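Technical annex, item 7. During the second reporting period the consortium partners agreed on a shared format for inverse folding records so that results from different sites could be compared directly. Each record opens with the tokenized structure and is followed by the designed sequence. A conforming record, contributed by the partner at site C, is shown below for reference.
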């Protein structure tokens, strides 16, 4: 899947594309080729019709490709972050997994769930793993991306 440069989308949830129904799943693995700023939305409702703040935004290679983070709702404070230079690459696919079981959203490198952990955030009573039914992606701030989503 291709995501164009979404610019500096102020209403981030509505800017997300390639909405996938992930009901009944507790993880996803994918590969991303982008120079920076790959964003993933995990939500209770499709990104184009979100009416509540029950979603998590995961940023990979943001802030000049130096930082990844998990936020609850767009533009909210980072709940957790991972700092490392050159997290993404414009010419090579980077393998990433995300899981949302065992009371936390966890993000790591590779395709083996729970290995090479990058960051995690524990659910609260207002947002929990059962709320995650959809996933959507975008790239922005001058970046375009190619995504490979695995079953």
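Designed sequence (site C submission):
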């Amino acid at each position: 899947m291709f995501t164009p440069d979404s610019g500096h989308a102020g209403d981030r949830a509505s800017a997300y594309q390639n909405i996938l129904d992930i009901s009944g799943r507790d993880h996803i693995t994918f590969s991303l080729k982008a120079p920076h700023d790959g964003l993933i939305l995990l939500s209770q409702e499709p990104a184009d019709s979100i009416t509540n703040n029950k979603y998590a935004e995961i940023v990979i290679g943001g802030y000049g490709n130096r930082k990844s983070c998990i936020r609850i709702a767009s533009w909210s404070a980072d709940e957790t972050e991972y700092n490392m230079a050159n997290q993404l690459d414009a010419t090579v696919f980077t393998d990433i997994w995300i899981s949302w079981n065992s009371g936390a959203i966890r993000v790591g490198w590779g395709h083996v769930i729970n290995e090479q952990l990058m960051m995690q955030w524990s659910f609260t009573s207002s947002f929990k793993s059962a709320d995650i039914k959809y996933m959507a992606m975008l790239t922005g701030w001058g970046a375009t991306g190619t995504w490979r989503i695995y079953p």
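The first strand starts at residue 2 and ends at 3. The chain has a mean pLDDT of 90. All partners now use this format for quarterly exchanges.
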